[in-house]
Amino acid sequence: MSDLTEITLADHGAVAVVTIDRPEKLNALGVDFWPQLREVLARLEADGTTRAVVLTGAGEKAFSAGGDIAGFGDLDGIAARRAFQAECLRTFAAVEECALPVIAAVNGYAFGGGCELALACDLVLASDRATFAMPESGIGLVPGFGVLRAPAVIGRHWTKWMVLAGERIDAEQAERIGLVQRRVPHDELLDAALALGERVAAAAPLAVEVGKRMINRGIDTGETSWSLDAITLLQSSEDTAEGIAAFAQKRPPRFEGR
Question: Of these residues, 6, 96, 116, 175, which one is catalytic?
Answer without folding.
Answer: 116
